[in-house]
Amino acid sequence: MDLFSNIALGLNTALSTTNLFYCFIGVFIGTIIGVIPGVGAISAISMLLPITFYLEPTTALIMLGGIWYGTTYGGSIAAILLNIPGTPANAVTCMDGHPMARQGRGGVALLTAALSSFAGGSIGILLLMLFGPVIATYALSFGSAEYFALMVMGLVAASTISDGSAIKGLAMVVLGILFGCVGADIYTGTPRFNFGTLELTDAISLVALAMGIFGVSEVIASVRNVHTSSIDPKSVTFRAMKPTRDEVKRSAGPVLRGSSIGAFFGALPGTGPSVAAFIAYAAEKRISRHPEKFGKGAVEGIAAPESANNSADQTAFIPTLSLGIPGSPTMALMLGALMIHGIAPGPSLVNEQPSLFWGLIMSFWIGNVMLVILNVPLISVWVRLLTIPYHLLYPAVLVFICIGTYSVHQSSFEVGLVVFFGFIGYMMRILDWPAAPLLLGFVLGPLMEEHFRRAMLLSRGDFMTFIDRPISATVMAITACLLIWGVVAALRERRKVKFRNAE
Amino acid sequence: MKKLIAALGVATALTLAPQIAAAQDFPAQPITIVVPFAAGGPTDTVTRLVAQAMSQDLGQQVVVENVGGAGGTLGAARVAQAEANGYTLLLHHIGMATTATLYRELPYNAIEDFEHVGLVTEVPMVMVGRPDLEANSMEEVVAYVRENGEDVMYANAGIGAASHLCGLLFMDAVDTQMTTIPYQGTGPALTDLMGGQVDLMCDQTTNTTNQIRDGSIKGFAVTVPERLDALPDIATAAESGLDGFEVTIWHGVYAPKGTPEDVVARLSQSLQVALQDETVIERFADLGTAPSSQEDATPEALKAKLEAEINLWRPIIEAAGVYAN
């Protein structure tokens, strides 16, 4: 069969000593920079891009790809153990991962994250392998109206993402959208909220915002209890990683749903692992019978986002490899690595460079296996992080956050932004304002605006475009159902409470 | 007091020494070329290829640094303010000329704050359309645009992008307004063109050649005087009766103002050597372009080009009334 000969060809390429070696280098570097907050895949890849001059194009991409999905694995470690997301895509993992670690179940949390990531990655790879070109063609039928409808659905689904006051959650979403408005309007070039600086005309970087709100504020908040290590390192040994049977059962569904959600958003250019993780978490909380457990250490709250962001990492290669169009800045870097070697990616890549295409896909799988091997038995090594006294660990974390943020755009201005958001994040903590909705608003807000306005331009101002187009109409209908369901559920809950009170 | 004077003398000598040395045995340390765009894009690729070849000629590593943002003006500003010793250079494209009008306030002057080293390459542009557009030639596209006017959706990769400039020039040439749909970058714009969400776009051959070849978008005309080897079936704009519609994305190397003349000469000479390098020629061809000629890779040619282009684009951008700040 054709597929099998392709897989054989791919394995042949991916299993060559050189490629195995660079695959390992890639996932190893990826894991490390993933664990280090602030330093993300994009800075590592752009720093390593010149080295790929001297490598075979396939080998180069295998290494860069390894860094890309490796960071998402590593990022969950910092999120769970330190409550600081290693990459923005791991921000949601903090919400249940860190509480679990505090309850002495950090080992289970780390194992769940690693295995969910592996499952998500594998499902993503399968889809990329079997249906890559089909999905790519289908993704082309998503215009701005469809994107907008999807974003609305995302926001509605995610409206319950955090516990506590609904007003506070809403206020944070709005604040996030406001921060997202900073920068030049892409339609007219008019600068918004840039206070006359050229730096702010390019919008606030996601890394600076996420590292400030989650990272710096965590460090400030920990200053007062540097002497009490909150997590017992003994709780994260190999033995303590064994989950209960109930936890395994509870994770299976979220992993499958998370992977599908991740695969979908990864394949759409413009959205990516961060959006996928948020939506997967929100969806899981929506359909859970115990939504009140989320945010307090529910294993589903790790399984869903971690499988989603890794699945999205893999399917992000679908538009890149099948259409020759990068869906994100990191993917653009990968295309750049190919272009430097004189390979122009496009729909014909699969036929013209079969060993590159299939070798790369097979290397993804090998890399994912390597990551599980790196993560699971070596967890005790990562956990040593926690035995580092806080008065040494936290300053180091701050330094890495600054280096990482600086390296994205070589901009010291953005380091200043991290400080600014660090203080905002700390204020939010004191006043008990949730951070996740802010990040969600920041990510989805500008996307919604861009697509809404483009849909309006394309339809020449006709609002019916959202209902006339079949895909958009379907998504809008689902959103309406979600809203109605939410209202009905809330009413029923209220009646129950009344009933109970009457008794 | 004597000691102080002596110390001052030594200090002055020390600070002056590197500058004198710079002129004599340049280069004595690695050189940084700033690309004012993200890594991986066409300009970055061009720079890395040239930097590689220049390293061999200069005997010093030429490092590429990406300082993206604000349409390339942040990177340009950084080089304008850098020390004028030839160790910090800028490789910028046509945006060097157009941002002079697009940005009403810039922290530098494109002509006065730089020494000009030379032109690197001129990348042709090509007018492309969605795969199911009824037009099959540039003449039919012009007719289609004239007939449908603002119902025609023209995509571009954002304000100041090559595709934005090309669209302005095209609308000027056919004297008809289309609806402009800006995107954040070429990728999403091309995706929507392939998916048939928008009608037309005009972009560098580096981004479009493969998609035209395998039929996922239609190619109509190239914006240079002669047909391209990579796309022999695509007519030129002039062949299609659009004489004024000629535009290339030219790239040039710049140094901060005040860089010693012999250092600029050495850099220019090195650039000329790099542009004759076989790998550079080969890889440029893969990108659908060719290195600039030896006469063009000179300070005079770049300065003349920059001045001419600033004057060409100013009225077009002002007439369109779009500004980036």
Topology (elements, then pairings):
The complex is a heterodimer of chains A (503) and B (325).
Chain A: H1 2-14, H2 17-35, H3 41-48, H4 57-82, H5 91-140, H6 144-158, H7 166-181, E1 183-184, E2 191-192, H8 206-222, H9 245-267, H10 273-287, H11 300-315, H12 317-323, H13 329-340, H14 349-352, H15 354-375, H16 379-387, H17 390-409, H18 412-430, H19 436-458, H20 465-468, H21 470-502
Antiparallel strand pairs in A: 1-2
Helix pairs in contact in A: 1-15, 2-4, 2-15, 3-4, 3-13, 4-5, 4-11, 4-13, 4-15, 5-9, 5-11, 5-12, 5-15, 6-10, 6-19, 6-21, 7-19, 8-17, 8-18, 9-10, 9-11, 10-11, 17-18
Chain B: H1 2-24, E1 31-35, H2 42-58, E2 62-66, H3 73-80, E3 88-92, H4 95-102, E4 114-129, H5 138-148, E5 153-156, H6 162-174, E6 179-182, H7 186-194, E7 200-204, H8 205-213, E8 218-222, E9 235-236, E10 248-256, H9 261-275, H10 278-286, H11 299-320
Parallel strand pairs in B: 1-2, 1-3, 5-6, 8-9
Antiparallel strand pairs in B: 3-10, 4-7, 4-8, 4-10
Helix pairs in contact in B: 2-9, 2-10, 4-11
